[in-house]
Amino acid sequence: xxxxxxxxLSIAEAGERLRRRTLSPVELTxxxxxxxxxxxxxxxxxxxxxxxxxxxSAATAEREIASGRYRGPLHGIPIALKDLVxxxxxxxxxGSRILKDWVPDAxxxxxxxxxxxxxxxxxxxxxxxxxxxxxxxxxxxxxxANPWGRDRxxxxxxxxxxxxVATGLCAGALGTDTGGSVxxxxxxxxxxxxxxxxxxxxxxxxxxxxxxLDHIGPMTRTVTDTALLLQALAxxxxxxxxxxxxxxxxxxxxxxxxxxxxxxxxxxxxxxERLHPDVRNAVEAAARSLEGLGIRTExxxxxxxxxxxxxxxxxxxxxxxxxxxPYLKTRASEYGADVRARxxxxxxxLATQYLKAQRARQVLRAEVDGALRAVDALLxxxxxxxxxRTDERxxxxxxxxxxxxxxxxxxxxxxxxxxHPALSLPCGLTADGLPVGLQLVGRHxxxxxxxxLGRAYEAVSPLRDRRPSPAT
Amino acid sequence: xxxxxxxxxxTVAEALAxxxxxxxxxxxxxxxxxxxxxxxxxxxxxxxxxxxxxxxMLPPGExxxxx
Lengths: 472, 67
Known about the structure:
The complex is a heterodimer of chains A (472) and B (67). Chain A is 39% helix and 15% strand. Chain A is α/β, with parallel strands linked by helices. Chain A has an 11-stranded mixed beta sheet with strand order 1-3-2-4-6-5-12-13-9-7-8, sandwiched between helices. A two-stranded antiparallel sheet of chain A has the order 10-11. In chain A, helix 11 (308-330) crosses helix 12 (337-345). The longest helix of chain A is centred in the C-terminal third of the chain and has 24 residues, at 351-374. Chain B is mainly alpha-helical. Chain B has helices at residues 6-17, 26-41. Chain B contains 2 helices and no strands. The chains are: A alpha/beta (472), B mainly alpha (67). The interface between A and B is large, with 55 and 38 residues.
């Protein structure tokens, strides 16, 4: 198999070859590094590439597998991390100029867990500065190219993660999601992204944006691969008191059973208002495909969910400002203009508004919980619009002109507020050839049902086996 | 969209918050705040008097069957 083809294998496919020793970790890692050298100058996905370290780790994995010490399906798999995940001895910039030379002295729990599972770290991925923006436009390290349209936004804030996975510059990646930052780039880049339940994956050692909204999740080319990464990441961590002690199921096995008979609720309020027509068509078609698989769909109401937007605004601005205040007092000029303005907005949010938002959060979480007693999952678009052009600041749908940041986050932010797990997966292309994302939202700690629905849908998705053309 | 005076924010930043704001950033801040103020006021429609705020950052209730 040609080196380029190796970089397009799913984690499950590559893992099986590694286990059987028909593929070596060194060969696979070299294939990715060769592709990164050839393409990343234009793709701008990586901030740091760990060529020597990755090859040394791959050689170690090769020896371990050869001597019968096979660790599992991630052993020898080349992955990459969003550059706000702390890595011992490796700079962690957060996509910022302020932390451009920061070298942590410890690994984040998620980095350590992936290393323990035998994954090979290829490098650290580009991102929206300090994770505060859904576009992925970065004034310091350049903006990763969306492989479906080089002049299009990759989405953010996990922009490098989305673009690198879609381009074939890593087998899988981690992103973080405070208002949609895993799901938005997954949607815009045509890959799978999971925001797990709040408390499912440790955030210890990951630079925060907003403590009560931050989540960490896998980004991959297939639903099964997302299950494999989640398996390594999930579970209680004493270093993160917000993690739950809930048992971790076997996600790959749990996503196997035929989903026939499951019920999915289609939520029209907020989520289906003012959609790009191609997005509406693709998501409606996905709902029909699920029905064709024996899954029952029904309309379900969330009459108060429109309060989620302002509530999330109050929380994210106040919490991010609290974290960044020391830097803003002394090094404000080193931030990009858009992130600095968003951060500074937080000092004008009143404490009463913040607390009101945290109370509203309880009401909205209960409302979504109530809906999920009637159905097994909710079905929504991930983003109301496909990837805007990189220089677009506003977009118009149904005669309404809004900031692209507001468009991109409308369908994702509410689920950060409620903490439910949400899976984005590709469900079609627009007339311009841009991917559309379908979002499935599940009960707390029931990622397994989302993976089960996702795997079944993936098999009939119009984007199955479609890859972006490198020349696009 | 509520119109927020730039001068007001400049005063708050200097006198209360004590984090300096470059005047060049104020228009964007006014726009972002102005776009959300009506929605923030409408949170009162949720009848929040008897609702505990989610200030303790612990995970939501675990599913009863351990999923």
